[in-house]
């Protein structure tokens, strides 16, 4: 890591190609330009966030205009761009994701290869005594440009540069890693491991419109008006977290990555180039970690069976697509469940004895039909805590 990490930020209020490309160029020029990272003929893999097969106007995925802008600038620097990702759970082929998110049109028009991580094979990488499968195109590329979107995350609090590289793990292997690390802190360690084995890379952040509330897919769009870039993904995530009104160390992926020497979290030790917008009253997700830590141990243990926050299904929104069942690593959603009003289909039903609160179901639900259900004890405690 450089002695003082650099984060470049530029204002960008709308998803116009000229505006986004100008903002990206401004950021990159501030940290040395694309020519500092790309040699002529280099293969450059662009890794957007394609969490769900949703159109750009729902602001769940990296906007295709940012992808197009970076493609243009990579080519100007002599690089050969590719675009690839592995969504959390996919059905009917990855092509559906490319099509709906707008990347088929962009990459087809610009003659850029779309790389399928699911069929390309993987390399086994080890870190902290744990093994991880990483898609071959990621590690074979001369440079990876990570293109995350600023969003809240109901399990890890926040998702951006660090968390987006979790998508370099192909297919449903990601679900297995969730199963192996059911607690938020354990999962954050896995996310940081995967971030680490993908270094070094360059990060260019879609912060024009982000997501607040119950992200990364069930939250609300929030205009932020910025593009950011940097080589230190930890510094980027920490600066953005700070800008959104949160202590960077409250985000477990930031804290763990910093403790492992992967980047900087201290805002005073980050060289900020450019002016970030003022973001007021940004909405963070409910805390899933221990609000009970403020209660004495014996009393906390007695209250535990009455204290919970867990996923539940809104039957009015559920369309019985069963993506929640497909994405659940512990098979905690069972069928049959509740018969719907038209008596035609069944709502899946949670087996909370199996549920590990990983929220894969919420993350992958295309209808935003899964919400946080909270017990009365949880609501009362949270009211008087700092959550």
TrEMBL record:
GO terms for molecular function: 4 iron, 4 sulfur cluster binding; metal ion binding; oxidoreductase activity. The keyword Cell membrane does not apply. It comes from the Archaea. Transmembrane segments: none annotated. Keywords: 4Fe-4S, Iron, Iron-sulfur, Metal-binding. It holds the Pfam family DUF362. Residues 309-338, 346-375 form the 4Fe-4S ferredoxin-type domain. This is DUF362 domain-containing protein. The lineage of its organism: Archaea, Methanobacteriati, Methanobacteriota, Methanomada group, Methanobacteria.
